[in-house]
Amino acid sequence: MTAEAPKPLEPTELRTVAHRRFDDGRGHRFVYAQSSAAILAIDPLSDRLLDAFEGEGGVAHEILPRVEVAADETSSDNRAIDVQKHEALRDLVDLGLIRPAGEIRAPVADLPPMPFPLATLVLNVTNKCNLSCTYCYEYGEDKLGPGTESKARPMMLDDTARESIDFLFESAGDRPQVAITFFGGETLLNLGAVKAAVTHAEELGAKHRKRVHYSITTNATLLSTEVIDFLTSNRFGVTISIDGDKDSQDTHRVFKSGKGSFAMIEPPIRKLIAVNKERNGRPIGARVTLTREAKSVLETYRFLCEDMGFDEVGFAPVTADPNRDYALEGSHYDGMLSEFRTLAEDFVQAATEGRPHGFANLNDLLRELHDGVNKAHPCGAGLGLLGVSTEGDLGLCHRFVESDEHSVGNVRDGLDQVARTRFLKEGHVDKKSECSTCFARPLCAGGCYHEAQVRQGDPSAPNLHACEWIRGWTDIGLSSYARIMTQNPGFFARFESA
Question: Would you give the end-to-end CA distance of the chain in angstroms?
């Protein structure tokens, strides 16, 4: 039977949209579509059709005659070949990977209905710390607001902590659960306010039938037996700021005297991890700040997970003015990316064999890829998350509290919805023209507000200095996703049931 002649596509001038193609190393090809944040398997013919456009966003005329069809993909009948090419092209158009060149772009997306219900509150219960970490934004030039001249109360009052919890429950709407994160300074310097908040939150949670999740970030210097019992009894998610072994930790994370902190924190950390495992608690995580002289990421990971016993390790590039001697620039990001790639290989090997792995950065990225996350804003700051200062003032996140310029109200008088909405509109990714053609836009949305403020004086500006790093890291995530999906697809069930 002779193949039916295909109807021509109108218009004939087409272009590709932003996307990324990748494979699993075993011949299976995939594409990540920016517009939908979907990951799709593609056949060889579709892959060659996209190649014919000579680059993402490229325009092509009459591309079909230039695309070869392999002998094993169809018959030798020319009409059948044309039909198959047209069908493949139409499929790519339907999937949104190829569009008419002159198509008018969709209008800028609106914000969700406001006021948007709050999900997470970060309580800065103290702005004091017993360490003097060299890269700390709280006391250096990178702090927003009055810095060392701050007139804010050094410790949050118990009453303010309870008022903060009242505000959270009043602002959470119909959400069935809320989250409270305790931060500092060194958070455990004000354990009283933490306990007051937890007690009050438990009472309100029972009254309003909302589940409450707690988390805390600490430098571990004050992890007494009492504190360990309190944290594990209340199923806290605990993140410990630690940069690795003794040499790594004592380079930047020091006391005011210059003495390193590792010897003091190692024993209580091991005890916390042991008690938490006995009580089947939530994961204990390490948070590593990467500076330009940091040790190997793989070496640091293995020390913290295999030696110290942490459940997971997250690595964060230092946020700092580029003039700081520990700041990351250019080649430093390249080196860090190479080390992330090495640790990702370790993760993929474990995942394909069904073994757990604690590389938190990659785990989080794979979750977002699997869920098809497509961000309008880089994080929840100002939307589902707010920070609270020791005085009860509301900031976009914990790094913006005490910054009058970025204030959005206080826990007693409520949220300034006008200021909140203005910030969210200005920070929307559709306002960042530089992001429009980037395939990593659904995951990045322009990057950290605080870093943009520090480097460019505008929290809504895209972090252009980190673009290549973000694209490179996303490539690692996509490749890892493909390899795990084709070798052990059951791995991703953990994200679907969470």
Answer: 51
Q: Of 141, 41, 113, 13, which Cα lies nearest the Cα of 489?
A: 41
Residue 392: how many other CB atoms lie within 10 Å: 22
**pTM for this prediction:** 0.90
Give the closest residue to 455 by CA, choosing from 291, 333, 337, 323.
Answer: 323
Tell me the pLDDT band of 98, cut-offs 50, 70 and 90: confident
How many Å apart are CA 13 and CA 31, to the nearest integer? 22
Whether 289 and 327 have beta carbons less than 8 Å apart is answered as no
Rg of the chain in Å (alpha carbons):
25
Residue 358, CB-side half-sphere exposure with 13 Å CA sphere = 22
Total length of the chain: 498
Strands 120-124 and 385-388, how do they pair?
Answer: parallel
Q: Please, how many CA atoms are within 13 Å of residue 481, restricted to the half-sphere of its CB? A: 28
Output helix, strand, coil percentages for the chain, rounded to the nearest 5.
40, 15, 40
Q: Which backbone phi and psi does 183 adopt, to 5 degrees?
A: -140, 170
Q: What is the pLDDT of residues 392-426, one digit of tens each?
A: 999 999 999 988 899 999 999 999 999 999 999 99
Cis peptide before 11 (omega within 30 of 0): yes
Joined together, the tokens standing for residue 315 give 């690595």
Q: Which residue has the tokens 């994961």?
A: 283
Residue 183's SS3 state is: strand
CA nearest neighbour of 131 among 250, 293, 248, 227? 250
Which residue shows structure tokens 């118990």?
158
The DSSP line for 365-426 is HHHHHHHT---SSSSSBTTTEEEE-TTSBEESSTTTTT-GGG--EETTTEE-HHHHHHHHHH
Question: pLDDT value at position 7?
Answer: 54
493 φ/ψ angles, rounded to the nearest 5 degrees:
-60, -25
Q: Which residue has the tokens 């902590």?
A: 161
In 3D space, the residue among 472, 137, 202, 196 whose CA is nearest the CA of residue 336 turns out to be 472
Amino acid, single-letter form, for residue 26: R
Element (H, E) at 268: helix 262-278
As a whole number of angstroms, the distance between CA 48 and CA 51 comes to 5
